From TrEMBL:
The lineage of its organism: Bacteria, Bacillati, Actinomycetota, Actinomycetes, Propionibacteriales. InterPro entries: Cyt_P450, Cyt_P450_sf, Cytochrome_P450_Monoox. Belongs to the cytochrome P450 family. It comes from the Bacteria. It comes from Nocardioides massiliensis. The keyword Iron applies. Keywords: Heme, Iron, Metal-binding, Monooxygenase, Oxidoreductase. This is Cytochrome P450.
């Protein structure tokens, strides 16, 4: 997992993991540990600092609901990874500093609203960029590969987050990718302070420009509380839209190989639906399934701020707590849907009483971008599938037993 790149994926390692089935082996190893150690949590003797692995579904809920006290989101390894591009981001802030930063993210991204108030504008951006993407792909032989898809997706992201003037600012995306690459090395690589300052200056400039129809404009109008550090929250948005692209592209693979799950009424243009920003629940469920089957945040980390009592003993303060999401999403000892596409799982909100499926985390640390991500990715899928019939050329997916990893870099679709 770590070799694949926690903050930005390394294509060669992802390809080898897919070939060798390493993700499936990881889940089987976790099953063996749960067999041996029962409920856990399992304390590991890791060099430097204690670490615990969560083995029981109830403890997943316990830890996530208990954030940020006593289970802080600002876990030490994560702090070292994210400090390369946003040392004051909500996720790695704690105590009095965390609350205003978290609140600012929730407000600007509109967590809890299925459609952001700028939804109509964002849908229009998606439609324009999809039109351009498919024209380009058709002009080049009709094969859609990840590179072209991601370029178009990042054009959408830059327009949505920073404004139309950033549409072609690929240098900014390269800078974020460079700093995320440094983040993969956490404390093993010194922070590129010049690069980081340049990134944060550009974020501040976007807030100052406040282009109408952008998230930067929404954020700049929120009258942020002292200490909320608006410019330091935006790098995570740019960074986290990258996994959203992965999830959408894999979602396309799921839908092309499970056409019976495609509800064509969700593909109608926003005008046809007489709704400028439709919700598209089936397409959202496809993205959620893509994230359940192949989580883009496979390791959710917390750190205990005090000693915490579990049934089987006390977990000391300062322990890094690991929730390995693929284990809970693909545990075929308990889940009959473990390895198949099961969009019905998302027909209703999942609660603490349910088995933990946590692609966006849960509890007070739930991803504040969740609703926006689902809105944008489902719009993007609708815009593509309305304009083209796709067939998956690169992979043969067995619906009864989907692979433990789907290398998004290697996916190729032929446009009909
Ligand atoms: C497929 C796309 C995404 C997935 C699967 C995802 C998942 C997650 C997860 C699992 C966490 C918790 C991480 C942890 O506790 O260590 C998280 C946190 C966060 N995400 Fe997302 N995310 C996605 C996209 C986005 C986007 C596009 C944004 C912003 C526009 C965003 C903003 C955030 C923020 C600000 C946090 C920190 C929350 C906090 O500190 O409480 N995410 N996300």
């Amino acid at each position: 997992m770590i070799a694949k790149g926690p903050t930005i994926r390394r294509p060669k390692v992802v390809a080898s993991s897919e070939r060798l089935g390493l993700d499936g082996r990881g889940v089987r190893r976790m099953q063996a540990l749960a067999q041996k150690y029962d409920r856990g949590p399992l304390m590991l003797r890791t060099p430097g600092r204690p670490m615990a692995m969560i083995l029981h579904p109830d403890d997943v809920h316990e830890v996530l609901e208990g954030s940020p006290e006593p289970f802080a989101t600002a876990e030490t390894l994560k702090v070292h990874a994210l400090k390369h591009f946003q040392p004051k981001g909500a996720l790695i802030s704690h105590g009095a500093e965390r609350s205003p930063r978290r609140r600012l993210n929730e407000q600007a991204l509109e967590l809890g609203a299925p459609v952001h108030h700028l939804g109509a504008r964002f849908t229009q951006v998606v439609e324009e960029e999809t039109e351009a993407l498919l024209a380009e792909v058709r002009g080049r032989g009709g094969v859609l590969a990840y590179e072209a898809f991601l370029d178009a997706w990042f054009r959408v992201v830059r327009r949505v987050v920073l404004g139309d003037s950033a549409r072609d600012d690929t240098a900014l995306t390269e800078l974020t990718q460079k700093l995320r690459g440094d983040g993969n090395w956490a404390f093993l690589k010194p922070v590129d302070k010049g690069g980081r300052a340049e990134l944060l200056d550009q974020m501040q400039a976007a807030l100052d420009r406040a282009e109408p129809g952008s998230l930067a404009a929404v954020m700049s109008q929120l009258a942020p509380a002292p200490d909320s550090e608006p410019a330091q929250q935006i790098p995570q948005w740019l960074f986290a839209f990258d996994p959203a692209g992965m999830a959408a592209f894999r979602g396309l693979a799921l839908l092309t190989t499970h056409p019976e799950h495609l509800d064509t009424t969700e593909l109608r243009t926003p005008d046809d639906q007489q709704d400028p920003a439709p919700t598209r629940p089936r397409l959202r469920a496809a993205v959620l399934e893509s994230l359940r089957l192949w989580p883009t945040t496979p390791m959710i980390l917390r750190e205990t701020t005090t000693d915490v009592a579990f049934d089987r003993g006390v977990m000391p303060a300062g322990t890094s707590v690991l929730i390995f999401a693929p284990f809970f999403h693909r545990d075929d000892r308990h889940l009959d849907f473990a390895h198949r596409f099961a969009p019905e799982l998302w027909d209703r909100p999942r609660t603490r009483a349910d088995w933990p499926l946590v692609p966006f985390s849960a509890g007070p640390g739930l991803c504040p971008g969740r609703d926006l991500v689902l809105m944008l990715t489902s719009s993007f899928l609708a815009a593509i599938l309305r304009r083209a019939t796709l067939s998956l050329d690169s992979h043969r997916l067995d619906p009864a037993s989907l692979p433990s990893l789907l290398n998004h870099f290697g996916l190729r679709f032929r446009l009909g």
